[in-house]
Amino acid sequence: MKSKNALLVFVFWIGFVVILLLVDLVSLSKRGDEVLGRIFFSTGYKELGSSEICPAIISTEKANGYTKLIIGDSVCHQVFNGFQEENADYLFLGTNQAITIDGQYILAKSFIVNHENVSDIYLIVLPTSFKGDSCSELSYSYLVEPFGKMGKLDYLSEDTIKRMKDYYGSIFLKKSIIRFVDGSSINNKLFLFHNQKKHSNEISSYKALSDEARFYIIRLWEECENEGIEFHILSSPICRSLANEASIDELYGEIRNTDLEPIFEKYFLSISYYPQELFSDGIHFKQEYATKDNLKTYIYDLQKKSGELEGLLVE
């Protein structure tokens, strides 16, 4: 009797595992993912960051004659990316803060490798963009998955790769596994939930400039210098608030009297604050203040304050 019950339990679990695998395989199809996403409340998790970031990676690989690159966060994207048609020298690849400075470095590196006569790399971001690293909350979705799928994680240092393997698990940095997780809303949601729960009790040290951000800024600056390329760090337009002003003060406090101070000189000079009523969420401009005429004004302000972005066209 006991052996019969044990067999039934064994068969039950085998059947359960088979059902889970079948559900997972179904979720990898577009229609299956849509249906199962609604059932398991995971709609929108499929290719959460990849759908936004992979096109930017592909753009860096095309030998399209651009000699100047602008990379940055979602505010940079909102302000600059709409002027691509007017510019033959500049490639605008504002993306998302969640790719971290690690991801910005990879975009710049890929652009340099795949383009001739590169003259300028511009990093245009809010001060909060310097806080994140490869193990931040959205880094798996916006850094590991898109850059891993595209085979670009090799641009990162061995120390960064080791840190990600320790944090996420080595298997989840393999390209085949990344594609498997990223290709299904259920898989992505389960992995992110599991990883969040695994690290929920960890206390991270707060820095306005993370160690990884510091490392990759210096690395990019040195590589640009060796290639005869000008590297510029400028500020995205900032909503005036006490919190944002404090972020700037904290960042300056960590950079002052360090080897980064000359690299960041134009960053602090380029800062422009705008009234809160212009912003929808304290970060991005409201649609009525993000017309081309308005965006031109923000760009002109940045050019005037920094003395940079020579030859950029907005007409």
Quick take:
With 315 residues, the protein is α/β, with parallel strands linked by helices.
Describe the structure.
The protein is α/β, with parallel strands linked by helices. The chain has 2 domains: 1-41; 50-169 and 204-306, Rossmann fold (3-Layer(aba) Sandwich). 52% of the residues lie in helices and 8% in strands. The chain contains 13 helices and 6 strands. The chain has helices at 2-27, 30-39, 50-61, 74-80, 100-114, 139-149, 158-168, 175-182, 185-198, 211-227, 242-255, 265-269, 292-306, and strands spanning 68-72, 90-94, 120-125, 230-235, 238-239, 273-274. The strands form 2 sheets. A 4-stranded parallel sheet has the order 2-1-3-4. Helix 3 runs parallel beside helix 5, helix 3 crosses helix 6 and helix 5 (100-114) runs parallel beside helix 10. The longest helix has 26 residues, at 2-27. It is globular and about 50 Å long.
In terms of topology, how is this protein built?
Blueprint: H1 2-27, H2 30-39, H3 50-61, E1 68-72, H4 74-80, E2 90-94, H5 100-114, E3 120-125, H6 139-149, H7 158-168, H8 175-182, H9 185-198, H10 211-227, E4 230-235, E5 238-239, H11 242-255, H12 265-269, E6 273-274, H13 292-306
Parallel strand pairs: 1-2, 1-3, 3-4, 5-6
Helix pairs in contact: 3-5, 3-6, 5-6, 5-10, 6-8
